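testing teh design pipeline on a random one, pls ignore if ur not involved
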């Protein structure tokens, strides 16, 4: 679904945290509203375990070589690999970025940059500070193409 992330292969702790924040209303995800109501913590943990064990099947769009290379450079300059690991597969509470949907990456980075990512790590706002939409599009293109 456009604008929705792939949960496959995301770190278990990241999924647990986000599913609980959605269930508790700390993250407003309209398509998820009500979906997690009444689920216990053990049920949330089981969901996170299931999705984290799934193999990500990236569906990259058309690769724009210039945009890809610019995104690769910007990702390195912004030190994205420090938290998300050098191959961008994520760890613990840091999400996997490699192979994620390009539209979702762009949407999420815009939220962080614009201080609209309620209930999430504020270090991302600082990491994306000063980047324009072209920068974010390049990073989203690059990360979405990785496997």
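output:
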């Amino acid at each position: 679904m456009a604008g929705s992330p792939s949960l496959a292969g995301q770190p278990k702790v990241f999924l647990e945290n986000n599913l609980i924040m959605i269930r508790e209303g700390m993250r407003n995800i309209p398509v998820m509203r009500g979906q997690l109501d009444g689920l216990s913590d053990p049920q949330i943990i089981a969901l996170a375990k299931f999705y984290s064990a799934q193999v990500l099947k990236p569906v990259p769009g058309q690769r724009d070589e210039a945009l890809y290379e610019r995104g690769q450079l910007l990702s390195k300059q912004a030190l994205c690999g420090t938290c998300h690991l050098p191959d961008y597969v994520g760890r613990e509470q840091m999400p996997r970025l490699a192979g994620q949907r390009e539209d979702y990456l762009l949407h999420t980075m815009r939220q962080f940059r614009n201080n609209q990512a309620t209930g999430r790590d504020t270090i991302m706002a600082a990491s994306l500070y000063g980047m324009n939409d072209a920068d974010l599009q390049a990073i989203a293109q690059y990360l979405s193409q990785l496997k």
